Every structure is written in C-alpha cells, then in structure tokens.
C-alpha cells in the first residue's frame, strides 16, 4: 500500500494550507493509500534545526522516521513574505537527517506541492521555491502544483469541507499523481 506523508500548515486556526494537505491525503486514502499528517502545531514542536545536534526530541524523530518510510509526500506552505514559511522550512531542514540514508532525502518519490497565499505573486514564487527544494532533495515534484489565492478563492465552507469544485478537482488530480506513479518511479 502506498504510504503518503503530509507536511504543512500554519498556526492559524482553520489554516487553509493545512486543510489543503488534509484534503489531498483524504483523496489519496480514497485511492487506496495510507496517510499520515504533520500539521502546523506539530511542526511548532520542532526546535530550530541544528546540524551539530541532530534529533533531540520525539517530534523530530517521528517526522524523520515518517519521511524515511514514505512512498510519496505532500508539502504545503503559506506564502510568507514572498516565500516558504519558517515553520515549514525548518521541518524540511530537519530532513537533512536523511542525507546518509541508502535512499536519501525524498529520493525517487513523488512530492506534491501546495501554496496558499493572499496574492498570486506569492503563490507563484513560493511554489517555485518549493520545487527547487524538492529537486535539491532528489524528489520528483508532481507535474501539478496547487496554488490557492486565499483572498480571491474560498476553498472550504464554514464547516471546513472542501467547497470549491475547481480546487477539489485539482486536489483529486494531485492525489492521483502521488499514488499512481510510485510503482513507475520505483522501477526507474
Ligand atoms: C507573516 C505573514 C506574511 C505573509 N506574507 C505574504 C506575502 O508576502 N504575500 C501574500 O500574498 N500573502 C502573504 N501572507 C498571507 C498568507 O500567505 C495567506 O493568508 C495564507 O493563505 C495563509 O495560509 P493559512 O491559511 O494556511 O494560514 C502573509 C501572512 C503572514 C501571517
């Protein structure tokens, strides 16, 4: 069974980036995958990554082990000041712990990317930055990256359910790209 790990969100209640990751994981599960989520409050437990003092707490260990075991990942960041939020980037930096694995970092695995920002400019540059991160970490950014403008679009209704059919269709396509190509990439 494909195991998909989701990372992302902010500390804001009702975080759209967190909800977008959770919605993607739900669609992956509907396609037969298992899923595990690391949301904003979880990421806030991680100390600032120090390469000289690796893996100091259970939260760090849990994230490193989960990514090590993942077949596919989905990462979401808000656009903060034109880039990836510190909360999400610190979690990614911790994954330096995977550098010396037989399968380092995100090697050989699809990584779906989602950005939520208050303007299209920040969604674009942040999505591009995340793709650069995934390339640096030997992962395969999925063909579809999702950009959500949280001022112009309303992806979720008051109950937190996905309400925008166009965004729902993109999330379903992203889930398909995360779950379907794993076998093909593993054979590469
Ligand atoms: C510290 C901070 C910096 C931000 N910087 C930008 C920015 O540069 N461009 C932009 O379009 N939106 C910016 N925003 C707005 C957020 O990207 C936007 O509200 C996003 O949807 C928040 O994601 P969330 O719903 O997961 O909390 C910023 C918000 C905060 C709190």
Q: Fraction of residues in helices? A: 40-55%
Describe the global form. Answer: globular
Oligomer: single chain
Q: CATH topology, anyone?
A: Rossmann fold
Mean pLDDT: 95
What summary fits the major beta sheet? Answer: 6 strands, mixed
How many E strands?
6
The top-level CATH class is: Alpha Beta
Name the beta content range.
15-25%
SS field, number of helical segments = 7
The name of the CATH architecture is: 3-Layer(aba) Sandwich
The fourth-level CATH homologous superfamily is Flavodoxin domain
> Strand-and-helix sequence, N→C?
EHEHHEEHEHEHH
Radius of gyration: 15 Å
User: Uncertain segments of ≥5 residues (pLDDT<50)?
Assistant: none
User: What structural category do the secondary elements indicate?
Assistant: alpha/beta
Distance between the termini: 19 Å
Small molecules (ligands, ions, cofactors) in the structure: flavin mononucleotide
Task: List descriptors.
41% helix; 7 helices; 6-stranded mixed beta sheet; single chain; Rossmann fold; alpha/beta; binds flavin mononucleotide; 188 residues; globular
Q: Could you explain the architecture of this structure?
A:
The protein is globular, with a radius of gyration of 15 Å. The protein has helices at 16-30, 40-43, 58-69, 86-94, 120-136, 165-179, 182-187; strands spanning 3-8, 34-38, 72-80, 83-84, 110-117, 140-149. The model has no long low-confidence stretch (mean pLDDT 95). It has a single domain (3-187), classed as Rossmann fold (3-Layer(aba) Sandwich), CATH 3.40.50. It is built from seven helices and six strands. By secondary structure, the chain is α/β, with parallel strands linked by helices. Bound molecules: flavin mononucleotide. Flavin mononucleotide is lined by residues 9-10, 12, 15-18, 78-82, 116-119, 122, 150.
């Amino acid at each position: 069974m494909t195991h998909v790990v989701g990372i992302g969100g902010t500390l804001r209640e009702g975080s759209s980036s967190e909800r977008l990751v959770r919605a993607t994981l739900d669609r992956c599960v509907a396609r037969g995958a298992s899923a595990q989520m690391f949301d904003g409050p979880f990421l806030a437990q991680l100390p600032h990554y120090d390469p000289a003092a690796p893996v100091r707490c259970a939260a760090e260990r849990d994230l490193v082990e989960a990514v090590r075991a993942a077949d596919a990942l989905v990462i979401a960041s808000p656009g903060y000041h034109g880039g990836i939020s510190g909360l999400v980037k610190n979690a990614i930096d911790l994954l330096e712990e995977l550098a010396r694995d037989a399968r380092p970092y995100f090697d050989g695995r699809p990584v779906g990317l989602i950005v939520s920002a208050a303007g299209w400019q920040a969604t674009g540059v942040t999505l591009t930055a995340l793709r650069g991160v995934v390339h640096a970490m030997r992962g395969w950014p999925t063909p579809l990256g999702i950009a959500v403008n949280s001022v112009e679009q309303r992806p979720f209704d008051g109950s937190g359910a996905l309400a925008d059919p166009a965004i729902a269709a993109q999330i379903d396509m992203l889930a398909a790209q995360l779950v379907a190509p794993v076998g093909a990439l593993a054979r590469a």
